[in-house]
Specification:
399 residues; alpha/beta; globular
Length: 399
Amino acid sequence: MPNPLETLSLDQLRRRTSIKWRAHPEDVLPLWVAEMDVSLAPAVARAVHEAIDRGDTGYPAGTDYAEALSAFAARRWQWDGIAVERTAVVPDVMLGAVELLRLLTDPGDAVVVNSPVYAPFYAFVSHDARRVVEAPLGDDGRIDPDVLESAFRRARASGGKVAYLLSNPHNPTGTVHTRQELAAVAELARRHGVRVVADEIHAPLVLPGARFTPYLSVPGAENGFALLSASKGWNLAGLKAALAVAGPESAADLQRMPEEVGHGPSHVGIIAHTAAFTDGDTWLDALLQGLDANRALLGRLLAQHLPGVRYTPPQGTYLAWLDCRPLGLESGAGPDGLAVVSDMAATAQLFLDRSRVALSSGHVFGTGGAGHVRLNFATSPSILTEALTRMGQAVRGLP
């Protein structure tokens, strides 16, 4: 199968109407939001076309999606821990996280996150009247058990229930947590009475050299939850559907999820995700090869055009976390000492203004994000090369 990242031209991509291609003018290369520049996997396209042809656009039913994910997990991760009766269909991973946190916590309770982390973790948690407590990642981008335990204690000290929203693999750093790290997380969570909800949306996108470990597969995680979908692996963000998976000790909690939550996913979305997990392996393997090649290409391009930028190649996802602080483009504070968003976002704004390359500003990912940008390298090598060339020219042209 050809590299899915090399099947579409820039002109073809610019005809798309999704936010990635409509948020900026046409001269901007968009490497920000987590959409891939690929055509649909043939198995997914076929399933969606067949549903449309038969007018199958009603309400969802059945357990095909959960059965497909269970078989995929056994095939790809050698994990047989997804019991269909301990799953629930939810609209998408983040809305699923909100619903699970509602089962586990009350308004005003604390939710621990590992910053820098996917920005909606902050928005969705705080908008639902929960408090975010940060447990920053270590300098190596990995979970620090001592820092995590300190965060658990701080969250516990204020009373109430505590949950931990885990990103596995981690967005934006691309870190793939090891079995040992996740077992340590489960042990700490048990000790401190913290319930874990693992966002595993990027699980299919672990690159060569790393191995994905489902959180619920480690000892001690039996009272946890995971959220999965084919959204990132097969570029299906616009076809809403995800699965909440409960550990054996959490089945009763999942039963308390309101029935109406299951009305949110799209029936066509469920059909698409089911097809991806059932028949999308060959396409996914070709994609992973292309992402691996782009990961290496990005390292070479940075060395050539932006040698001051620090880059640790991600182990998973298609997101690169670039430390641009050596470029000295951000102050992070105004004359009154208060943080100023325009200053904190200076690096991303500079690349947008001078390079016409759109990136995600690191400051929105929480503590540890200032001075960084997140770059989506799930695009063609030619677009990636053009973007990095422009970015280098912009920095070299600074006064």
